[in-house]
Known about the structure:
Blueprint: H1 7-10, H2 15-19, H3 23-37, H4 55-61, H5 67-74, E1 91-92, H6 95-112, H7 118-130, H8 133-146, H9 149-172, E2 173-174, H10 198-219, H11 226-245, H12 251-279, H13 308-326, H14 336-353, H15 374-392, H16 398-419
Parallel strand pairs: 1-2
Helix pairs in contact: 3-5, 3-6, 7-11, 8-9, 8-14, 8-15, 9-10, 9-12, 9-14, 10-11, 10-12, 13-14, 13-16, 14-15, 14-16
Amino acid sequence: MAEVVPEAVASFTPVSNRARAEPESLDAIGTHTRLRDSYTDETPVSQSYSGYSSSSDYLSSDSNASTIDVAEALLSDADRKFDPPKKRFMVEFPNWLEEKLAFIDDPIIRYSQRATARFFFFLNMALTYVMALEISVAAPVALYVLGWDALATEILYLSLLLATMSQIPKRFIWRYRPFMVHRANQRKRTTTSSFPSRAVACATVYAYILANIIGYASDGSFSLRWWHFVLIAALFIAISFARVNLGVHYPTDCIGGILLGVVVILTGLGIRAADVATCGDCIGGGCYSSPGNPDSEIFASSLNKINFLRFGIVIGLSVIVGVAFIVPPIQFWTKFIRVYGVLLPSLLFRLTFLCPVSTASGAAIAAPINRPWYAWLFAALISATAMTVAAITPAKKAILSFCLFYSILFCVLSAWRLFIL
């Protein structure tokens, strides 16, 4: 019986014709082709709660498809949009390493994608949104508005580390996501690099932050406890399943994500120790003005007590980082304003108004005495507004937009603490 070849596959240009034009892409796709074609299962990956229909459905269900047919399908014009971004200094994930990791990745992907009920789709999408980086970015400014300065500072440094350290491999290492090369069914679309899983890194750090919030609320301290590790493990398993089930990550991406999260936490502990040594610990009141000593308190009418040298250095470094990260050749992140435009003003506020050690007179703002009911509304409003405005800021004038956004957010936060709280 003659083999029936689907029209979608039969219409592709022979692989040999593309090999001359895109040898690197062909090598990468060829590696994924061998890996994809080497696994068969009685439950096809193409069974999907989202109802996708494409050449991948054929490739997933027809275990007799030849390697040449699979390669041609994977090199379709529709799939060319998944080529690595045309950015300098970006390298592709090594093919030899992809092949060695396949014995971990592919069986777990196939097993996890057997869960095709719509319940899993909505659950996995909810977990994805809850573990978004934007949550930790918006948190510090809201907490500074509420006067929870110790917790705000803790999350601020963790968020800066998490954003920067997770973006470095995303920017400079390109790994095809599983659905891009049909090693998994597509249930969520994204066009960035697969390695590592930022969602898993966020879940690891968020578990640590949640544990700190509980500890801070109970006894006013930040310290590791045994159940912190249980919480991290539970979130790791949940979000890893979600990302693999959606077809956007390999299991080894998730392992890389949790390792990255642990590195962020450990680095954050060191930075926090250095911050406490140089600016004082807000938990014990060390970052505030001395009670009963008006000369040590910074008011709106006594801004001359600020350490303007440190103030200028922090602003200058922020602008330098902004220019270096936005313009070519680095072009570190298209979300630069959305992330650093919100976090860096909070850092400037901490080092300007909550660091008495840096001033000659030990000046700082006073510890908050009470929180009016509308402080909660303002905290939600300013954080939501900051994230929204940063997200819609045009990229054509990114540097100017960053400077304006940075200045406005710092002034609003400072005015709130000086005049209201």
